[in-house]
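Risk register update: the risk of archive-format incompatibility is retired. Evidence:
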Amino acid sequence: LYKRFAFLPPPPPLRVYFPPRPHTLYQTKTGEGLAMRRDAKREEQTGRLLAAVVLAAMLTVLCGIIHQLYHREYAETDTPNDCFAVSAATGETALPKMVCLTFDDGPSKNTVPILEILDREQVPATFFVCAQEINKPYLPLVRQIVQQGHQVAMHSATHRYAAIYRSSEAFWQDIKTLRQALEPYLNPEDITWLRFPGGSTNTVSHRYGGSGIMQTLKAQTEEKGWHWIDWNVCGEDATASHPNAEQILRNIQEDAQGLSTCVVLLHDTKATDQTVKALPAIVEWFRSQGYTFC
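Archived output:
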């Protein structure tokens, strides 16, 4: 998705005009030169004062932006497995480097080898599942996902934007259908995490439900006592370019640069064989960078 703060424009360059000094010997030795120097000095002082005022204003704005982004970062990267619970309970203020692997749009045939890799590497993950026709033969896998210590979360029953985003009622009917499809395999009451198809800031939904549809759905999710989550690192493994395993790893490495908390978006659909191939290298890379999996 997303360089998170890419929407911020670069600050405008600061330009301050400083008038030239007297430049001839005649002007320097005469009253004209003295007057020019006095005028120049006054103009220079005025210019410096203006520069100081502009700089102070820019710093004030910048501090406000940093404050908002700091709180927004941790507000928007709440993790399904409550990675920060330990540090909060112990009073620690320095957050460890955390990574949460998440898989969307499954289950499918590729869910099985992904579970095998996660089991071998002893790494937890969260699966945001669907209940499309293509998923239905593999829905029993959600029981295995939970039994292996992973988390099942809600994504969509149909994943059809035009249908689910035409109204908030349509969206929640889709989620109800998903939960009913999962009920034979686990307790739906245990599923309280949600990822909106396309993410919480998608604009495709505006075509069908208006510009305020996502704000409404986020508020309603919280009213239900549930939680929603996006991502800040993306393997881009489900794009039309069909990247190979090496490119998926590079995409993740580029997105993760400088982040202490990574919520990684991957997919476990029938078309993401390359994700299966990339997964061991992804796990190895995050470990080499000092991340803890949650």
